[in-house]
Amino acid sequence: MPEQTFVISEQIGNITSPNASDKVILTGIHPEPGGMFIDDLELTLYPSDNAKPVSLKIPESGIFLQLFLGDFTGDGRSDIMIRGDLGGTGGYAIALIYHYEKGTLKELFNQDRFSQKNTCTAAYQNNYQMLIKCPASSFPIDLSSYSKEYLSMIYTDDKKVKPNISASVSWLNEVFPVKPVSETHYDLILYQRIIGVFEADTIGYIETRLSYQKKEFVPIYKGVLMLSDQVRTASVSSMEFDSNLQNISSTSGLDVYYSQQFKIEPENLDLIINAISEDDNVLYADGYLINLRNTPIRGITNFYLKLHDARGTTFASKTVPSINIGGTLNPYEGRRIFFRFQTKEYSLSGIDTSSIHWDYGYHLL
Hints:
This protein is 6% helix and 51% strand. It is mostly beta strands. The two termini are 30 Å apart.
């Protein structure tokens, strides 16, 4: 069955002149019927004076796509912003802004070009410190208030950074148009995620504010926002088997781990894994997702899972763009879930099975 083009978003605004009522339409297709991912994007401007429509192919694909119209240049006319999410595990943003000029749409902002010009780095330092470096600026972060369990993953007993421990800063994760009531044009506020010891470990965000001046977006300020311990616990979780665990050194086709005892974290989306088995070069983790939050969960995206043995060695790792929970997961409801690790996603060689624990993170809808 051929893929059908559909209207993603439609807006009316003064694009071609201050008093115009122009129509802007963003269209695309679903490569997979019923999926969230949208491809083959096209932006079309229909001027209100019946002039020839202006169309532009958008070289992006993603989810949660929408249009926003607002004056970023200060000329009294709205510009066209396309916002969305690339749909991968990193939660990267789509943010494109176009300005109408003499029958064409001129690009003012592109998330990739910004990220390329504003690459930042993060590094753990001795004595529970982290240093963020960006072009023309740097930011020290004090990690000493973090839990002993977290710091022990990174530091030795004498507060030295362990070998092969690293951190990083992502490309753009969020882009927001903002306008103070006293201003006539919009600025942009952008966020880049500071990633800790594993991919789902969000330390905080680098915040940048841009304003359009002299035909380009220029930075007004840049700073670091830290997540509170409560928020970090809600978005990044760690669970483990009880020590009363049956260990089986197995070949393909046998149970690898099994437990009926587990720990849970209140006010969280808990992942409980009570059996891990291998069959025909596929590792299966069988368990439950339980909503212990006070609010319903309508969707789970960017789910990240790592399994570790007693020495902390990662023996399985997987990312899942989205998890089908069959509608809404209400407070105190659960769903059974199977994770399948293919050959390149796990290794059981030499692991210590005296205890097993796992880290995971997610985005909730």
